[in-house]
Amino acid sequence: MGILQSGGLVNKIKDIGRGVINLVFPPRCPVCDGIIGPVERYIHSRCCEKLFPVEQPQCMRCGKPVLSERREYCDDCARALEHHRQMREDDSYRQGKALFAYKGSIKQTMYRFKYSNRREYAAYFAQTAVERYSDWIQSCGIDVIIPVPMHRKKMRQRGYNQAECFARALSEKTGIRMAKGLVRRVKNTSPLKTMGYVERRNCLEGAFQAADSIVQYDQILIVDDIYTTGSTAESIGHEIARKCPGRVYVLCICIGQGS
To answer: Can you give the residue ranges of the Double zinc ribbon domain (predicted)?
Structure first.
């Protein structure tokens, strides 16, 4: 009974299950996509140097790398904050962080993670997030993790939501609840990657819907795969603000370069 109450039996069953899965479907390195052997975990040691962790100086709001330490905000955040000031509205989220700069080998990694069913990469991303930002997550007092939702039509086509994979893995590492149903994508938007800031903002207007039950949470962490202009985070943050006074934070796997 003691082992059952402590969760030890459940963890043992999970470990056995993972072992069987790894034998049938060996985990792959997120950089080179080669099979990970029993000695290494998550990533080949030789591949780590091909990634570019986000370092200082960075935007104080979104965490995007900037070129000068004298810059407080990247151009996108400066534009967003000025828009909020003119509209006399609160900021849509308090602060964001990212693991890697979106350049080099990580671009192919994210493509496979998103389109080639490499869901196992999420474990490495979550582990990296905990190693780099566990203190930040704790200081923010995060009480729920919400993945950026995918429209049901796109979900049927792809079969999975990569942001949800990351959120679930992060939840397992931190013990913080992951709740995918608190924010839904109700508008099937066109691909955003070729759009500018204003186009993205207009396209995402009314794209998300927060559940009334979100009001029970005070500190909300939105997670996504790639952060570009911040329009998605802005849109979700505004929708959450309509339903609850909780503070919103953002954590992404990759982020673009700021100016």
So the answer is: 20-78
pLDDT-derived band of residue 136, with 50, 70 and 90 as boundaries? very high
Strands 219-227 and 144-147: parallel
Domains of the chain: 1-48 (no CATH), 51-255 (3.40.50)
Q: And the tokens for 251?
A: 């954590």
| pTM (two decimals) | 0.88
Q: Among residues 108, 143, 144, 132, which one has the least CA distance to residue 34?
A: 108
The pLDDT tens digits of the residues spanning 234-244 come to 999 999 999 99
For residue 207, what are the CA distances in angstroms to 19, 79, 81, 106, 202?
Answer: 40, 21, 21, 28, 10
Tell how far CA 31 is from the center of its chain.
18
Check whether 184 has a pLDDT greater than 90: yes
Q: Give the residues across from 35 on adjacent strands.
A: 28
258 pLDDT more than 80: no
Bridging pattern class, strands 95-101 and 183-185: unpaired
Q: How far is CA 53 from CA 12, 77, 88, 174, in A?
A: 33, 21, 35, 21
Contact assessment for residue 239 and residue 183, using Cβ atoms and an 8 Å cutoff: yes
Asked if 203 contacts 187 with a C-beta cutoff of 8 angstroms, the reply is no
Tell me the C-alpha distance between 10 and 12, whole Å.
5
| Rounded CA Rg of the chain | 19
Which DSSP helix (H) or strand (E) runs through 255?
strand 247-255
